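haha ok so turns out i had the wrong file open the whole time. this is the CORRECT one, sorry everyone. sequence first:
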Amino acid sequence: MEWYHTLVILFSSLVFLFLLGVPVAFSFLIVNLVAAYLLMGGVNGIMGLVAGVFTSITTFALVPVPLFVLMGSIIFHSGLGFDAINVLDKWLGKIKGRLSILAILMGIIIGALSGSTIATCALLGTTLLPEMLKRGYSKRMSLGPIMGIGTVDALIPPNALTVVLASLAKVDVGKLLIAGIIPGIFMSALYLLYVLLFVHLKPHEAPSYDVEKVHFSEKIKLTFKYLVPLGFIVFMVIGLIFLGVATPTEAAATGVLGSFFLAAIYGKMDSRVLKRSISDSAKITTMIFMIIIVSDTYSAILAFTGTASKLIEFVTQMQVSPYTVLIAMMVTIVILGCFMETVAMMMITVPIFMPVAQALGFDPLWFCVLMLINMETGLLTPPFGVTLFVMRGVSPKEITMADIWKAAIPFALVDYLCLTFVILVPKIATYLPSIMK
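then structure:
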């Protein structure tokens, strides 16, 4: 069987199972077991695949995953994250478009802790969207920021999603976490700039309203009480990695310890919070590890059958620019974003795209950042991005899919603008990792 036949059969089998509604991890597991039996020597092939499972998850690089998830769960369930958001809300005062700006700021904080675009969209959609519509905000200024900010989730550390990609792509976890900082800040700034310009030109789409006046001294007090300690925890994670003081695993453990003690100091750590945090972390970590297992075995099948090496050979011998191949890969990711969540896209694309990117001479860290941006943008791109349907599910009945598409388009364009900048100026993604100690 030719290598391209193998690739087409494996990929189409996965898509077929997805369309049947089989969960992503189990779809991969079924395809992997059948492929191992047929292509790798029957029962011996399956036994070899099972042996490789232990290698895929017994690696030090994956230890930060449950720790990052636990840290985010503690901050979320204890309410520390919402305390910080309330402080930011008081600083915004009567600024035009304050709820749209608050949605962006909330998305950055919640998304960085959860790492899930869909979860962030669902949470903001149920908590903030009703208030925005009640205050007379237009559908564009209500829906757009809530959906758009999800793209930043995968870039601003700490988050487990980046660790998963680093593990699948076999790149340095700490450097990839740091590599997303500047692109994430840049994209967030573009979102804020768009909102400020839009409400300046069309103030009726984000009408002002009276807010409780808070004295400057009170704002300073609340900032040092709720915002600074949480910022210090984030520094304990990212700062220690950047300065070379701690590995990602050690920094993640420090973050968990810091969030636990901070919640206890504020009297928000009780048995209920601890139980829910540990339970959520266990569920999410199990899902992520299951995904890593089946993705690694998928890669092993591609390598054993020679499909991966033949694909690399085919691409490198094409008489086209490497950037043409890069754009083709990015377009593929956008299309996949119409049907599946970020981790599922990673599972399908990383084993195929990463070896090709390295063969073409692209910086692995830079390419991974491009993938993170593009995967999240694919979820937002009309008409079939997954985030759009999540937004529809949590919106009031008067919100139509047409309203959601119109609101998403400007933010998707901002994402593509940021992606273009990172492609043209790779230093945006590679500068900070290059100066890490």
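The mean pLDDT is 83.
again sry for the mixup
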